[in-house]
Amino acid sequence: MKKIILLAVFLTLLPLNIFAKEDYDMIDIKIGKSISAKESLKLKSKSNFRIISSDDQIINNTNNKEININFDGNKINILGNNFKLQNFPQDGAFLITSDSPIYVDKIKRNYGGSISFRVNNKKLDIVNRINIDEYLKGVLPKEMSPEFPMESLKAQALCSRSFAINNYNKFIKNGYNLDDTTRSQVYYGKDVEEKSTNEAVESTLGQVIKYKGKVAETIFCASSGGYTVASSEAWGGNSVPYLISKEDPYSTHPWKYELKASDLKKLNLTDIKDVKLDLKDSKRVKNLTFSTSKGDVKVNANDFRKKIGNTIVKSTLFDVNVAANKVTVNGKGYGHGVGMSQYGAVEMAKKGNNYKDIIDFYFPGTNIEKIK
Q1: Is the pLDDT score of 188 beyond 70?
Q2: Residues forming beta bridges with residue 340, ordered by sequence position
Q3: Is 269 exposed, middle or buried (0-12, 13-18, 19+ CB in 10 A)?
Q4: How far is residue 231's CA from residue 212's CA, in Å, rounded to a whole number?
Q5: What is the pLDDT of residue 23?
Q6: Pairing between strand 76-80 and 102-104?
Q7: What Å distances lie between residue 277 and 209, 280, 285, 286, CA to CA?
Q8: 169-182, pLDDT tens digit by residue?
Q9: What is this structure's pTM?
């Protein structure tokens, strides 16, 4: 009981806004799916857990290698063997840490750093507070194959580090910086780390991509298809000087797909006679107009991709052929085409270019500099 009272007193002394100062060395990542009320969560580690404050002061040595997190829809309670902590803070003021990786049973992955929680929309968010470069080690293997050339991995490390910093406050209203999905960058923690991707992170420590002194918007995609897309064309808004449309001889990635009857049903199309394409400046398709026996049907190219499947119609850089009652899509590229092409980076590295050459090609006018 005394422990709980002392913790409550300590909480009242903590600063109200623990996110007042941006510290790019550490980053808070929401991991896994949110937990509903009455669900329990188990954390395991090979070393004992400690409860620490957000400024690394030890609050409690739990003497437990396994603890249960119970969420009743309002309060967070932590239980272990001869250990109990009620009403665990929901703002990151307290953290659960260990000298060994922390296994989160709901996600079935191991994480470095520490774990805390936020309550959003009456659900419990699990948050991993981690050094930004340790975070990147859990990102790179999910964004690029560890078998790719080292210079391309270094280029990805710079893109991912710069992207994380540029988007540092994306989810700050929820009490964390980024999540572990494609809305930020895919992050799988310790379990996916590889020697090559770790080396790429470590050999570029502290380096980011900047434009006129500010960390750049380092967008990337799998393949440009031979022609990159300006960000303003892809998503509207103001043009970005280093995210432009340009020929990319290093990345083509051709693909082909014949529409099935089920695809035509999704598009509400029958008896197609012909198709006309409305193209953008980057040669990508803006709209498709299908001529049918019932009249013309106009379909937005992005909607076309979504309905058929973004991994099937891999980009909007394509042509369509209608012949003998068959509709065939022949395309190039994979993804939105903005910024660095990952396959292009690989090809440039194979041709002897270093990571600085790759960054200079895909983000013209930018510089590689230290974070601060």
Answers
A1: yes
A2: 220
A3: middle
A4: 18
A5: 60
A6: unpaired
A7: 37, 10, 6, 7
A8: 999 999 999 999 99
A9: 0.87
SS (H, E, C) the chain: CHHHHHHHHHHHHCCCCCCCCCCCCEEEEEEEEEECCCCEEEEECCCCCEEEECCCCEEEECCCCEEEEEECCCCEEEEECCEEECCCCCCCCEEEECCCCEEECCCCEEECCEEEEEEECCEEEEEEEEEHHHHHHCCHHHHCCCCCCHHHHHHHHHHHHHHHHHCCCCCHHHCCCEECCCCCCCCCHHHHCCHHHHHHHHCCCCEEEEECCEECCCCEECECCCECECHHHHHCCCCCCCCCCCECCCCCCEEEEECCHHHHHHCCCCCEEEEEEEECCCCCEEEEEEEECCEEEEEEHHHHHHHHCCCCCCCCCEEEEEECCEEEEEEECECCCECEEHHHHHHHHHCCCCHHHHHHHHCCCCEEEECC
Beta carbons within 8 Å of 275's beta carbon, 6+ residues apart? 288, 289, 290, 291, 320, 322, 327
